[in-house]
Amino acid sequence: MAKATPIRVYLQQGRTRVFACAVDWPGWCRRAKTGEEALEALAEYVPRYAPVVARAGVAFPAHASESFEVVEIIPAPPAPGFSGVDFGTIDEPCKLDRLPLKGVEAKRVAAIVEASWATLDDVVASAPPELRKGPRGGGRDRDKVADHVLGAEAAYARKLGLRHKQPALHDVQAIAALRSDIVASLRAGGDAPAIENGWLPRYAARRIAWHVLDHAWEIEDRSG
């Protein structure tokens, strides 16, 4: 039997946490205290991530959780520099994100982002308005989480050169218009940001899908 091709992963280090991100699979990123634990978390989330990919109509490797190839380690910035990793956010592209995104690959990436939105929408629709609180009583309820995601997407869109106000939570047309423009930008792809200080297309897809799925899974975990 042929050996499965390893999943390419990069690690982004903070001072107290590490993110492991699958280079070619937008949204498949997990955080832990060490790189090894982050890779373990990435593997553990395959049963949750695979249905998103299937929803996009994209073939997902059958043994995706069995073999990772760490292609890059992004170190934490020297003190007193800020690392979003320690606060729960990926905020650095990897070197492979500079490769052109075009054609079939651009459509595949955009489809996974769309499937991430569809997953979140289904989760929000089925979740109770009040979510289970954390051990210290913290945590936003369902609509607050959904509203936060929309606010982030409007901000992320500006990194692609798109201008949208944050849609109201139940403004279906405005939400669809925002997402449609983001998808069109990702399908157009390229190998450079659309604007100065903007995001590379591959990184933009990863960041958007990760944020959406991270909150979808949060809502699932805190429901009931």
In short:
With 224 residues, the protein is an alpha+beta fold. The protein has 6 helices and 4 strands, in the order βββααβαααα.
What does this structure look like?
Helices cover about 45% and strands about 10% of the residues. It has about 220 residues and is α+β, with helices and mostly antiparallel strands. It has two domains: about 5-95, Double Stranded RNA Binding Domain; about 100-220. The protein has a four-stranded mixed β-sheet. The N and C termini lie far apart (about 45 Å).
Detail the topology: elements first, then pairings:
Blueprint: E1 7-13, E2 18-22, E3 29-32, H1 35-44, H2 46-55, E4 68-74, H3 103-126, H4 142-158, H5 172-188, H6 201-222
Parallel strand pairs: 1-4
Antiparallel strand pairs: 1-2, 2-3
Helix pairs in contact: 3-5, 3-6, 4-5, 4-6
Number of helices: 6
Number of domains: 2
Largest sheet: 4 strands, mixed
Helix content: 40-55%
Question: Taking strands numbered 1, 2, ... along the chain, how are they ordered across the largest sheet?
Answer: 3-2-1-4
* Strand segment count: 4
Strand content: 5-15%
Spans of 5+ residues with little confidence (pLDDT < 50)? none
Judged by helices, strands and strand pairing, the structural class is alpha+beta
Q: Would you list the SSEs in sequence order as H and E?
A: EEEHHEHHHH
Could you say which overall geometry the principal axes of the C-alpha atoms support? Answer: globular
Report how far the terminal alpha carbons are from each other. Answer: 44 Å
Rg computed from alpha carbons, rounded to a whole number of angstroms: 17 Å
Q: What do the pLDDT scores average to?
A: 94
